[in-house]
Amino acid sequence: MRMGNDEMSLDFLAGLRVLDLSQFLPGPFATQMLADMGADVVKIEPPKGDPMRQLDPVTNARGPSPYHALVNAGKRVVRLDLKSADGKAAFASMIGAADVLMESYRPGVMAKLEFAPERLRGINPGLVHCALSGYGQNGPLRLAGGHDINYAAAAGALGLTGPAEKPSMAFPPVADYAGALQSVIGILGALVRRGRGGEGAYLDIAMADCVLAWQSQALTAHRRSGDADAGKPARGDNLLTGGAACYGVYQTQDARFVSLGAIEETFWKNFCETAGRADWIARQFEPMPQTDLIADVAAFFLAWPLSEFARRFAGVDCCYHPVLDVGEIQLQPQVKARQMVTEQAGTGPALALAALLPMWIDGNPPLGRRPMRETDPGEILTDWRVQK
Q1: Taking the CB of residue 253, how many other CB atoms lie within 10 A of it?
Q2: Domain covering 234-251+257-322, topology
Q3: Residue 47: how many CB atoms within 10 A of its CB?
Q4: How does residue 221 score in pLDDT terms, banded at 50, 70 and 90?
Q5: pLDDT digits (tens, 9 = 90+) for 93-125
Q6: Contacts of residue 49, Cβ cutoff 8 Å, sequence gap at least 6
Q7: Share above pLDDT 70 across residues of the chain, in percent, rounded to a whole number
Q8: Which of 151, 154, 296, 388 could link 207 by a cystine bridge, Cβ 3.0 to 4.6 Å?
Q9: DSSP assignment of 215-276, as one string?
Q10: In 10 A of CB 73, how many CB atoms?
C-alpha cells in the first residue's frame, strides 16, 4: 500500500550520511536519488544560498524559483560560510562523520577552501568523495566554463541530434542527468568496496565524459566507414538519426506530432498494414537516407488529425506513440498507473509537480518526498553525534 510522504521511506541506504556541496541541477539531482533511497542528505549552501534559488531555466520567470525546492526535496539544507574559520571547523566535523561528499566545484576550488582530497581523506579515510565537473579534473578544458549544451557538443551527441539542417538541443538536459546518474552509480559502487575493506574513494566524474560513454556505437560506426561517407553517423542519414522511414517523427494535419519506432520487421509490417499501405513493407530496408519513403509516410500522417491515428492505431503493436505536450503527461493512463507524478511542496504557496524515483519495489509504487527543510549546523552535528 502506498503511504504518505511522512509515513514511510525506502531503507536501502538508511544510516548513510551524505554531504552535498553541489549547486544547480546535476549534483542535487544525484543526492536526491540517494535521499529517495533512504540516505540522510544534508545540503550545504553558502550564506546567500544556492544560485538555483533564483534561477528559472524553464520559463525565465523572475523571483524565487520553485525548482530549487523541487530538486532538494527530501534533504535538510544548512547555510555555512566555508571561507570563515567557524564554517570550516563545522564542515570538518561533518566530514568526519559523513559517508559521502558530493561537490560540483571547478577543479581546484576545494583546495582553495582548504579541503583538498588529501585533507578530506586525512579527516575521514572512509569518505567517498564525488567531484562532478564539466570536463573533469585534468586536461586542457578542466577549468573551462560550460553547461549541458557544451558537454553534449563536446561528446558528439549534439552533432547527431536533430534534422540534417541543424543540430537540436535536448530537453531535459542530457549531460546534467547523465552526470547525476553516473555519480550515483559511482558512489554506490565505492560504498560496496568500502563495505569490504573500509577504504573510501575519490571519484572524478565529468559530465562531458558521461555523454561520451554513451557514444560507443557512433564511434564504432565512424571507424567502420573508413574514408567513405556512407555509413558514417550523421543527422538525417542513419537508422536512429532520421534516415529511416520506420524510425522518426511525423507531423499530423492538426500540427501535432507522432513518433514511429517500427525497427523490427513485424512492427513495420503491422504499421504498413494498418496504414493501408502493404506496398511499403518490402521497402523497409531501402538505402538510407530513405528520402522518398519518408516523404510517403509523412504524407500519410499529414492527411489526418492526431485523433484519427489514436483511433486507427489503438491496440496495434507497431511502436507508435503520439508526441505528448508536457501538460498531457500526467493525464495518461500509463503514467497514472505507474504513479510517477505527485504534488510536491515548493517555494511559496504553490505546489510543484514532481516526478519520483523511477522504481517499483516489491510491488510498491514510488514513494513521495518530504519537503526540503532548512536547518542549522548545530542540528546536524547533534544528530550525527559529532563532538563540537
Answers
A1: 14
A2: formyl-coa transferase, domain 3 (3.30.1540)
A3: 11
A4: confident
A5: 999 999 999 999 999 999 999 999 999 999 999
A6: 79
A7: 93
A8: 151
A9: -HHHHHHHHHHTT-STT---TTTSTTTT--TTEEEEE-TTS-EEEEE--SHHHHHHHHHHHT
A10: 24
User: Which residues sit opposite 355 in a β-bridge?
Assistant: 341
At which residue does the C-alpha cell 551527441 appear? Answer: 157
> Other CB atoms closer than 10 Å to residue 93's CB: what's the count?
18
Helix (H, G, I), strand (E, B) or coil at 46: coil
Q: Where are the beta strands (DSSP E) in 38-89?
A: 40-45, 76-79
Instruction: With CA atoms as reference, report the closest residue to 124 among 201, 195, 205, 13.
Output: 201
Which sequence positions are flagged as catalytic? 147, 176
- Give the largest Cα separation in the chain, rounded: 78
Q: Please report, as a single letter, which amino acid is at residue 2.
A: R
In the numeric block, which cell numbers belong to residue 273?
Answer: 498494414
Per-residue confidence (pLDDT) for residue 223, from 0 to 100? 87
Give residue-wise pLDDT tens across range 243-276.
999 999 999 999 999 999 999 999 999 999 999 9
Q: Which CATH number fits domain 17-213+339-383: 3.40.50.2300, 3.40.50.10140, 3.40.50.11810, 3.40.50.10540?
A: 3.40.50.10540
Tell me: pLDDT of 218 over 60.
yes
pTM exceeds cut of 0.90 = yes
The mean per-residue pLDDT over the stretch 149-163 comes to 94
User: Average pLDDT in the 284-310 region?
Assistant: 97
Torsion (CA) 358, 187, 130, 158 in degrees, nearest 10: -50
